[in-house]
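Section 4.2 – Deliverable D4.2 (structural model, holo form)

The reporting period included a commitment to supply a predicted holo structure for the target in complex with calcium ion. Inputs used:
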Amino acid sequence: MTSAVLFRRCLLGALGALPMLAPAAAPVRAATANAPVAAAAVAASGCKLTVNHPAGSRTAYFRHCADTPEMVRFSGGRFMMGDAIGNGREFERPAHAVTVAPFAIGRYEVTRGEWAACVAAGACLSPSSVPNGAEAGPRHPVTGINWNQARQYVEWLAARSGQPYRLPSEAEWEYVMRAGVAADGAQTFSQPSQYTCSYANALDQSATLRHPELTWSAGCNDTFPDTAPVGSFPPNAFGVSDLQGNVWEWVEDCWHPTYEGAPTDGRAWIDDGGCRKRVNRGGGWGNGAGAMRPSNRDADAANNVSDALGFRVALTLPATAVKRTPAPTATPR
Ligand SMILES: [Ca+2]
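Output (structure tokens):
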């Protein structure tokens, strides 16, 4: 375990004591069935666009190649980003309205199996840090990859598919995480402990048995002492899984200590001259429920690795290719 990993677990696990709110009304649906996304470009790469619409699901997923991540598309929308109710920390404020353009995001965190395809192609290196590697299989989220390596993966993905894959912006990530819910802690987690174990892979009782140095466990058992295979917990209202818990997720943005001056158009907030740190979001298997609030955020140097830090991919969609759907408008209360 690196000191950075221990710090991450300690710093963010302590957030579990933050006050939480009662669940709000169910968010509205924004994810829709797939539409053809530059199908000619996909065919030219040797891949084939496929759609997966699970029985009983309101969300359809698509992928461009057999070994690339499943995606969920969004028509874009306006929401309130950040801590609007005062239960977060200074760097989660001020809350501000953001309008995101059409985009797609990974249904799951990038898995070890998906990463292996990039390694086999010679475009990525093997992960350097894997929690309990004996248990980690191809459906577990990849960890032990730094921000620069995550960028290498999406660049390979773009070349392989012929599509504009990239990392999500922090605003896009939070838009999907909130799924139309304005208030922190209102989604289905950060509630009594058993609720946490039903909806996210957090630091639970099974984890503290394996990692007794981590003492901020939720008072329940989610049965996953380290990472869990992606999709082991219910998706959110947008059909996207594991945004809270399992692993922290790199996004494109530079770290900023507040949202003063943040973009309002959903793009990543990048500094001239480069970033000292890159943002990551969502909490991981070593954190309590409070770390998984939708507005919570953290950052690491771009060359840092952790066994609790991975990512998911995003895809730019042309506005003309997206069927407009009702988009949630989140407002602070
Ligand atoms: Ca767990």
